[in-house]
Amino acid sequence: MIEETENHFDWQQFLRRWQEEWVPGEDDVEDLAEGGTTLADLALAAPPAAEAETAAAEERLGVRLPPSYRQFLKASNGWRLDEGSVYRLGAAHEIDWFGDPFDMTPAYRQGLTERSTEQEVLLAGMWRRALQLETDSDMSYALLDPGDTDEDGEWALYVYKGWSGEFPDRYPSFRAYMQRMYQDFHSGRARDPDFVNDTTRALDADVERAREEALGGRWETARELLTEAERYGRPRARGMRQQLDALSHGVGHGYHGFGELVADPRYTGELVPVMAVAHLWDHRPGASPRRFVLGTETDDGVTSAADAILAQVLDRTHRYAPGGAFGRAVAEAWESARRGDTDTAWRVIRAALPSWSPPGPDLLAPLGLLGDPVLGPVVTRERGLELLATPRAGREGPVPDPVPDLDPPGLCWLAETQRWNAPHGSYRCLWVEGAEPEALPGLIGEDGGAGLTAPPVRPAGWFPYDVRKRDDSAPWEDRAVLAVGRTGSGWAFGFDTAPRPSEPGNFFVSPAAAASYDGRAVVLWVRRGRDDTPAVFHLSVAERGEELYAYTLRGTDVERTGPVPEALDPDHVLLGVDDADRERCLLAAVHDEFGLSLPRHALAEGVLPHLTTRSWNRAPREGEFYGYVTVRLGR
Question: Confidence class of residue 36 from pLDDT cuts 50, 70 and 90?
Fold first, then answer.
């Protein structure tokens, strides 16, 4: 929009356009109405400074002024600003050294440490060496710092708002400051329908171009265009740019407001669920709930819909359900994801992306995926980038290479060094051959239980399974809270990622027999010891209600029940195996024997429904005793 090369900026064109685009603000209109003020009085520009005036100022100050400020004076000897807290920049004869009249230097230097950055050191010394440019302001100061320079000889400009108590805003040069003020000038008038000029028309054309670039998979180009238009406050730009950010960074990484698009009922089902997830993701357990803010004025219909969506996201009943061919693919993907097969779910969504069409012109991608409690975790940051790079809504272009699947095959991943919030510390699980997850409550669910329930909402950085909710009715009971799904080989599974700090003991009764009413069932229970080595490894296998065999390995001691096959017997499996590989080898043997697996991503992200089982311990019989210790920490 402004004639510009690497070493030249056309100040005359820039300032002339700014002056021509200027229209009176509210305060200016009042001044004009009261009389005594004319439009000429409110002009932004001033006559240019002669070279002699600039030279005289430099001689008086004892320094040559930085290039962009010097060129500015040649185009306008001062400037009136009607946005922000600096109202007027003085002429060449009015500028002078600031001199730190408020003694800011000691306060800033006192905060310096050995770890202070170069920028912090420069700021601490800026106050006494800065050149003051403004002659009228709201207790604010525009300060050029000759000690903070770049390779072009430009001085950094700081704007200090004396009433704010905040650090000064830094701009790398006077030119950068003026360009920002020009953008703010536009932003302040962007909602005025009569504010139309060459700049607004060019920016709005860029927003339209950005839309086409985004739908064609060229999202990075689109983001650059939208970011620039957003700086000028152009309608739609922020909401469209935030969509790209939500998918490129992932939900839960920052607040996504989507600007005025939220007020459009066409986008409520796509954008509000994403905002609701971010709202809940940022909520810490035990903290007072924050108000759900949409960030823009909406009518009663959108507000009511947003409240309903928030409630559904909170209890995990919200479901993303677009129409058409893409909607049918989403429904298929949802069925796969809710059973734990998030890789298949993503492949279904990815294949259907070209068929997606937006409900309105300002939606750039199926954002509603991120707001679905089942499908949201499927769209990881890497997959979000793949989605953005895929042409959609009838556009054509190159298709990106698929990102790798997330779930490793088999069970050996359970033996990997655990992350603090991932489900591979001590664990226990079972599989039932040929069963659906919905059958598990009838086989092993607690008496009178609720069956399968939605997993709790996981706030950012918190463990997805809350062990504190285990309300055992008797001290000897040990009811597991399982995440339930189905493997690709046709086994229903339940996985308890946070078992109580116990192990299969004298009262333990494997649930394998109860679970195997119509076929085979396998139970694993691994309790980690020091250095992530298994202190206890239990395996039990049953078929049609009868336990076939079981073993419990404690250290090097093995307790067996029934004829354990050689392929599973730890004496055979662990022959010559180092301690560090014991768990991995035992898990590999179970996988090879039964073809079992577990979906790491669905478990780690808390996607799967939950089931509370009957106790894995039986009640003590007559003459038996059960002891336990409760330790309470606190004052």
Answer: confident
Whole-number Å distance between alpha carbons of 552 and 540: 9
Closest CA to 534 of 524, 523, 519: 524
**Apex CA 327: angle with CA 323 and CA 331, to 5°?**
135
Measured distance CA(231)–CA(202) in Å, rounded: 14
- On the 0-12 / 13-18 / 19+ scale of CB atoms within 10 A, 622 is exposed
Identify the DSSP state of 226: H
| 3-state class (DSSP) for residue 579 | helix
What DSSP state is assigned to residue 508? B
With a CB cutoff of 8 Å and minimum separation 6, the contacts of 449 are: 441, 611, 612
Q: What is the 3-state secondary structure (H, E, C) of 452-473?
A: CECCCCCCCCCCCCCHHHCCCC
Q: What is the mean pLDDT of the chain?
A: 89
Number of helices (H), then strands (E), belonging to the chain: the values are 21, 18
Which letter, b or e, does each residue of 579-614 get, where b requires 16 or more Cβ atoms within 10 Å of its Cβ? eeebbbbbbbbbbeebbbbbbbbbbbbbbbbbbbbb
Average the pLDDT over each of 63-67, 207-211, 479-483 and give the range with the smallest value: 479-483
**Spatial strand order in the sheet of 131-132:** 96-97, 131-132, 140-149, 155-161, 169-171
Residues recorded for the chain = 635
Residue 470 has pLDDT above 60, yes or no: no
Burial of 225 (0-12, 13-18, 19+ CB in 10 A): buried
Helix (H, G, I), strand (E, B) or coil at 308: helix
H-run or E-run covering 538: strand 534-543
Angle between helices 268-281 and 300-314 (to 10 degrees): 50
Residue-wise pLDDT for 279-306, tens only, equals 887 666 555 567 788 888 888 899 999 9
| Consecutive H or E run containing 119 | helix 118-129
Six-digit token pair at 214?
């985004």
434 in the Ramachandran plot: left (φ > 0), alpha (ψ -120 to 50) or beta?
Answer: left
Task: Fill in the amino acid letter for 71.
Answer: Q
Q: pLDDT (tens digit, 9 = 90+) per residue, 390-440?
A: 999 999 999 999 999 999 999 999 998 765 455 556 899 999 999 999 999
How far is C-alpha 190 from the geometric centre of its chain's CA atoms? 29
Are 217 and 391 contacting, i.e. CB atoms less than 8 angstroms apart? yes
Q: Are 483 and 601 in contact (CB under 8 A)?
A: no
pLDDT number for residue 622: 76
Question: What's the DSSP call for residue 81?
Answer: -
Q: What span, in angstroms and rounded, lies between the C-alpha atoms of 86 and 314?
A: 45
Q: State residue 77's pLDDT score.
A: 97
Q: Where are the alpha helices (DSSP H) in 188-267?
A: 198-215, 219-231, 237-249
Q: What is the dihedral of CA 123, 127, 130, 134, to 10 degrees?
A: 110
> Which residues are CB-neighbours of 120 under 8 A, at least 6 positions away?
111, 112
Does residue 116 register a pLDDT over 70? yes
Residue 404's region, left for phi above 0, alpha for psi from -120 to 50, else beta, is beta
Residues 6+ apart with CB under 8 A from 330: 320, 321, 322, 349, 352, 366, 369, 375
For residue 521, what are the β-bridge partners? 432, 542
